[in-house]
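TL;DR need structure tokens for one chain.
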Amino acid sequence: MMKVIVDSGLCDLHGLCVEAASEVFQVGDDGELHVLNETPPEDLRAKVDEAVRKCPTGAIAIEE
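>> reply
TL;DR here they are.
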């Protein structure tokens, strides 16, 4: 099972993760990145992998 980890200290809210996997990531009204599902199902792995790759600050990781 994968677990999504976000380092909020590195996140600059570019929003590329939301574009890649809106089922997992959301920028809230509070201006913070929220992980909607820390343990998304395997069928979202490709989208989460894309979010990890696209993050310009390297703030997102997947833990197995």
